[in-house]
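Final report, Chapter 2: Outcomes

The project's central promise was a pipeline that accepts a single protein chain and returns its three-dimensional structure in a standardized token representation, suitable for archiving and comparison. That pipeline is now operational. To close this chapter, we reproduce one record exactly as it appears in the project archive, with the input sequence first and the structure output second.
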Amino acid sequence: MGVGADSGIRAWPVRPDSGMTYVILVARTHVRGLTAAQTAARQWASGHANGVVLLGLVAVADAPGRLPKDLRESLRFVAGGVPRLWRIPWVEAWRSAGPGHGGAPIRETARLATDLSHLVSAKQETR
């Protein structure tokens, strides 16, 4: 599996060799994050992301505790438009950690890494 990277440009990635690009959307679970994820999911579903294989959405908690009902419903709605949803809970240590210093993986991030590895391997085998 190749190295992942943040596109940094808020646009769908395009490979110069016209190959397939595996993408995961990552969004905070606040209104702005879920709205952005919904916009991206709509673009992908309508065919505006040529060459992109969308693997799913990673929803990262924007605060500790349970999501309020309106945000839970919004997340459920957005998740209906993507192939998979992974939820990452609030991790207090991540607020002050510098790049590369996020601490040990939590169960959910370890599961995400395993799922992504299997998904990409399976997609590459079916080509």
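Archive annotation: Residues 26-93+103-125 form one domain.
This record, like all others produced under the grant, will remain available to the consortium after the project formally closes.
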